[in-house]
Amino acid sequence: xxxxxxxxxxxxxxxxxxxxxxAHGAIDTPAFMPVGTAATVKAMTxxxxxxxxxxxILANTYHLMLRPGxxxxxxxxxxxxxxxxxxxxxxxxGGYQVWSLADLRKxxxxxxxxxSHLDGSVHHLSPERAIEIQRLLGADITMVLDECTAxxxxxxxxxxxxxxxxxxxxxxxxxxxxxxxxxxFGIVQGGLHPDLRxxxxxxxxxxxxxxxxVGGLSVGEGQEExxxxxxxxxxxxxxxxxxxxxxxxxxxxxxxxxxRGIDMFxxxxxxxxxxxxxxxxxxxxLNLRNARHKDDPNPLDNxxxxxxxxxxxxxxxxxxxxAKEILAAMLLSWHNLHxxxxxxxxxxxxxxxxxxxxxxxxxxxxxxxxxxxDNVEA
Length: 378
What we know:
Layout: E1 5-12, E2 15-22, E3 25-29, E4 31-34, H1 46-51, E5 57-60, H2 61-66, H3 70-75, H4 79-83, E6 89-92, H5 95-100, E7 105-108, E8 111-115, E9 122-125, H6 127-137, E10 141-143, H7 155-175, E11 183-188, H8 194-207, E12 211-214, H9 223-233, E13 243-245, H10 251-259, E14 264-267, H11 269-275, E15 278-279, E16 286-287, H12 307-311, H13 314-322, H14 326-352, H15 356-366
């Protein structure tokens, strides 16, 4: 019996709406998970994150194993208590972060040895240790340890890496402690090669997981290539398990991926953009450094109910940005996360009404060309 309960409520084409029940509550799908890498969603309180409509957040094994350490977090009551987030938490295994440390790591069959980016200390992360860390953290959804490959890697390199990840996935499955309300997701790898993706998906299904992620995308391949891979992979995954596209993405990416049968997403984009003066709106992104906003009394988006839109003008937000006030990052991050959650809620409703095609057409029609920076105040 699976540790997680996933119920599909309706389908519209390949898109699905459903409910994923975990030990710390339900996740309505399709779902976007804000990224709380180091046990915090940057510039946001947990209460504020919940007020955007988010039900599940992502935290990162690599960062938390280095600081403050999983054993310390367990002694302090687990990650939910530690960061005061009562809802579900998914933890990324750390494979992507270790992969990005190309000059600081050595990888072999047993796992990966790497030097901390914080102090240079040496650490070893095996599939078994990755599972142990996520258990100590108390993650509702645990991810297997995998290796990501660079976009320019040869097919032979991608195949070797994918098969190593599949052997690691088997070890992760063996190490995972089955508990009601807690689950383990496998990760499909294989780069941009449909045959390798199919092999990976088949291998993971034979092992049996509570959910299936698609990894190794959003690494520079572009939306068209990403959608091409999803067109092939999504139908190869079990219909009765959630499907998670890792590290994606822009609003249009989410709409396109949901239409291809993806249920879950995470990305740093809404919060990172909030810290770099960009706001996502129904009519496209805005650059709040742009001088055209300095006398504008209107909200970022007159259809949005977030605090930034209810209480502040574009002119004031522009002022905060130019003055480099911390409140700018807080309000823009809140707005962006609220926008993303509104987008997901809109898609869930559209799928329930068998109207996703019309929703997507309206979404694309409303999105305007992004602002240029030719009128930016220095």
